[in-house]
Amino acid sequence: MEKQYINRGEPLNKVWLKRYPADVPAEINADRYTSLVDLVEQATQRYADQTAFINMGQPLTYRQLEQKSRAFAAYLQSSLGLKKGDRVALMMPNLLQYPVALFGVLRAGMVVVNVNPLYTPRELKHQLNDSGASAIVIVSNFAHTLEKVVAETAVKHVILTRLGDQLRPVKATLVNFVVKYIKKMVPKYHLPGAVSFRHVLQQGESMPYQRPDVSNDDLAFLQYTGGTTGIAKGAMLTHRNMQANLEQTKATYGKLLRDGKENVVTALPLYHIFALTVNCLLFLELGGQNLLITNPRDIPGFVKSLSKFPFTAITGVNTLFNALLNDAQFNKLDFSTLRLSAGGGMAVQKAVAERWEKLTGHYLLEGYGLTECSPLVSVNPYDITEHTGSIGLPVPSTDVRVVDDQGNDVVPGEPGELWIRGPQVMAGYWQRPDATEEVLKNGWLLSGDIVTVDAQGFIRIVDRKKDMILVSGFNVYPNEIEDVLMQHPKVREAAAIGVPSDLSGEAVKVCIVKKDASLTKEELLDHCRRQLTGYKVPKIIEFRDELPKSNVGKILRRELRDEARPSAS
Fold first, then answer.
1. What's residue 2's pLDDT?
2. Can you name the CATH fold of 469-564?
3. Please, which residues bridge with residue 420 across strands?
């Protein structure tokens, strides 16, 4: 029996298909639409008069989405003279402007480069230069970051928007005033030559739009993910990759979802691949209403928005579900309309999952994904009757293997590295053939995660091969943090590891050997805050006389991690 698994390169005979609910197909069609442009056109036509997105009480219908995104595309083509395949960066939280710009860029035949608005100047400069973006759409709150680096990038066009710009005139003025003058959330910036988002849409309305010749093989997104080297790499996601993943999600959860009747809560940022595929693209194709939450950290404000919105689906990460469950007002909400709760980005803790089920009457369906897989690889089936603690079954049209260090398939049930093959797997890393070669072997993507697969096909993560730290669903790479720490003149050696955290899944801990005895934790923290986005800043700093090393002098992070873990008593 063993032989069939170990004959080098054979997947696990798709044992999971037998465990699929009866209505979940084994395969999906990744070319149902000729491209994402075709998908948007059809959806906006099919559901023209229904609401597509709501933000801060302002609805945007599918017809308005079509008109505005077309005007945006026309402006990129006619006024800015950008060509098919040019990269356009989007740097904003969840606002109505985001889907308008997103679909505008795609409809112009260009490539979307999603940028985390919380990036520091150093991080932003790298991503803009690496992607070669020639234009950026940015919300004014973060314009000061761009100002510092724009001259050192290839960006020629800056489109600026304010938080309230897509709201009704009176509300827009009010929101923009409060944000700028009362809450002081817009630091001063100087970006001469920037044009306003409103101006772009006004101008674009009267400009010719040329529908590009886009196929499913064309590039749709450069979605950046940190690398083990700490330098973010752009995963090249094609129109087919994204569409395949949307179809895979739809095939898995299709029974729970109804065309034109779903109300989904999007608290995860749309620049995050999970929210982008599942919330934005899937629910657009389904004709859903999408509630965009601009600041999910403001839990009272978030819950208030929820109380006015009879939501049928919600996606999030463990941190978010936990924060909601700990809010008294959230516990009073009506969950009778809820049909789907899906968690991704980081492991959902058992305690959180059980509390969620108790409160809402629905299981939190946990999934696993990678930016390189657009993102979904596996999810728990909708018919589970308890929190499984597993990351579920591979989604339709997906093959997985569990492989040892020699590249052989392991005996069923044994741990090994998860390899993935399917239409959602990226085309490779942007302009990084070496890095691509490391992770893509004959169509298989090497995940770097150590897993076991049981007899039914349920996958469990055992460990991470890479040293990556997962903070609230965001990848943090130790090398990047160590590089920043080592730039401090008083640091001799530094090692960064992830330690368990109730709040964020993992927290960043750093172990430091001082070069200068006067070095303080506050000094280090100040230094890190200047160079790193908030979630990457160390939560725990520990000074040591020495760090554990291998015989060739390599710092052994694993040893530090093992020390930090509570002993398995």
1. 35
2. GMP Synthetase; Chain A, domain 3 (3.30.300)
3. 400, 445
Contacts of 100 (CB under 8 A, 6+ apart): 60, 65, 68, 69, 72, 166, 201
Which pairs from 2-7 meet CB under 8 Å and 24+ separation? 2/411, 5/409, 5/410, 5/411, 5/412, 6/408, 6/409, 6/410, 6/411, 7/409
- Rounded CA gap, 194 and 147, in Å? 11
Which CATH code, of 3.90.950.10, 2.30.38.10, 2.60.40.10, 1.25.40.10, is assigned to 2-21+398-464?
A: 2.30.38.10
Domain ranges of the chain: 2-21+398-464, 61-214, 469-564
CATH topology for the 61-214 domain: Rossmann fold (3.40.50)
Q: What are phi and psi of 411, to 5 degrees?
A: -65, 140
Average pLDDT, the chain: 93
Residue 543 corresponds to which tokens in the numbers above?
Answer: 């000074």
- 74-to-43, 83, 107 alpha-carbon distances in Å: 20, 11, 9
Question: Model pTM greater than 0.90?
Answer: no
Tens of pLDDT, residues 366-414 = 999 999 999 999 999 999 998 888 999 999 999 999 999 888 999 989 9
User: 552 pLDDT exceeds 90?
Assistant: no
